Amino acid sequence: DGGITQSPKYLFRKEGQNVTLSCEQNLNHDAMYWYRQDPGQGLRLIYYSQIVNDFQKGDIAEGYSVSREKKESFPLTVTSAQKNPTAFYLCASTEGQGWETQYFGPGTRLLVL
Amino acid sequence: GQNIDQPTEMTATEGAIVQINCTYQTSGFNGLFWYQQHAGEAPTFLSYNVLDGLEEKGRFSSFLSRSKGYSYLLLKELQMKDSASYLCAAMDSNYQLIWGAGTKLIIKP
Q1: What would the pLDDT profile of A86-99 be if each residue is shown by its tens digit?
Q2: What is the distance between the alpha carbons of residues B23 and A44, in angstroms, rounded to a whole number?
Q3: Most B CBs within 10 Å: which of A7, A33, A43, A50, as the mutation test of the B interface?
């Protein structure tokens, strides 16, 4: 079955710690995205990548970093510089480079201890 | 600025019809998406409109008026499993999605 996987489902971060959220897709999609979802707010774009070895900042990139070394993988690192990281993180992908329908992974909920 | 407005919460009865409205203001426009999201789960794609008019897909229909910056999602023959949040998102001239905060739909028996 083709799809997008995210791991872990729940992640706990201690103060001052960097954590990495995994996103893998086997759909052979070109573009991948990271969103953050907070209660009462729309999804906010953190980073996106339209091609391997290239990525662009979204609206709220500060305190986050990404890499796109392989087409199928787009991990997100939440650094200690992100002071309010508690949120639901969603990874998505599109077949082409951005104008198509986005398909989402199951999400990772990040909580701060 | 770019903005999407949709009601925060709506309540409807099983078997009835409900219409969820969405108004948008974006820099350029390349279509309007509706997604369904059950609590704690990923959004799933429902519909895409780029031309004016009504698109019907089973129990769900979506309408777009570009001149009014307005869309609605119509759900017929409501079932308990339709209890979810419904997200409206408009694609701007840079092909970026601008998301509404979602409408939580509560279905009562």
Answers
A1: 999 999 999 987 77
A2: 18
A3: A43
